[in-house]
Amino acid sequence: MMRYGACNKLYRTCLLATKLSHTSSQVSPHTVTTLLSSVNPEFQGHNVSNSKNSFLSRRVYMSSVSLGSLAAKEQEGHQKGIEFQLLRAVEDQHGGVVVNIDETMDTLVFASMLDVSLARWKEQGKKGVWIKLPIENSNLVAAAVKAGFRYHHAEPDYVMLVNWISNAPNTIPPNASHRVGIGAFVMNSNGELLVVQESNGRFSGKGIWKLPTGAVNEGEDICTAAIREVKEETGIDTEFVEVLAFRQSHQTFFQKSDLFFACLLQPYSFKIQRQASEIAAAQWMPIEDYVAQPFVRENELFDLLTKIWLSKVDEKYTGFSTILAKTSKSKKSYLYFNKKDAKSTPQELVQTRS
User: Fold this and answer.
1) Residue of 232, 278, 298, 348 marked catalytic
2) Residue 232 catalytic?
3) pTM of the prediction?
4) Are 259 and 180 in contact (CB under 8 A)?
């Protein structure tokens, strides 16, 4: 009984034979028959012609496979020693399957295997079908879309497609909806604030002194991102203290929503080395000069953030500190909380529970 490799070879050979029989008038039926017989001896002696009723004139893959026709074809295949090949998949935790195409595949072979697989998964009551296509297999995208798949998300090296094949309500989760960014308040012992002027973006060339800001990388914690961004833009080493506040906005970067965390950091180096590629200038600026900027005073959001920070400087405000805790999957994750009214420090809380 032919499986994976042999069946794949049969598909490819049939495709090649079909192409030869339809595109070259000099290729005899005997040559095509010999080609097919090299894969399956059953084709020996088969009279292959170029007529419309020929075996090779039919589409090699099934454009639509009903559950009844699938069962019939599988039964016929068993009798002939051939088993239809399904795409390899693993079950997810929500009643669906995930297919990871990790080898080069012919488009028509993939389309045929996908049709048969979808029919089987429907028969089994599966819900969502995910297909991860590496960039090397981008030739398969059109066939998947034709079979009912749509884009879900993409990364630099792959695209993820999904198809809801159940009659139940669609519960496929949307792609990530938010981008996360940070801004850093860093003040030295002289009461000066670390500020920068950007060489790119909407603040470029406007003489505006602003906080170091940046996006949080994939898999990066907010507190770690704040430390990294300050180091990259100014060369200053810092320690994370707390999140002072955060804001949410919508329809920003590629129509995604945005979360911005204003963080307080404590410096332990003071010599500025600006990032030449993104930062036009950087300095330690007196607080009163920063607050006096029209940009800060006239922008309600920045004005509020500055007032919150100044309240923290005057010890009249408490933000969100971090505590490293284990999740239900035993992974460590930072919890941000206001410890003002807590009876214990974060470390004491952990020790009390252990």
Assistant:
1) 232
2) yes
3) 0.65
4) yes
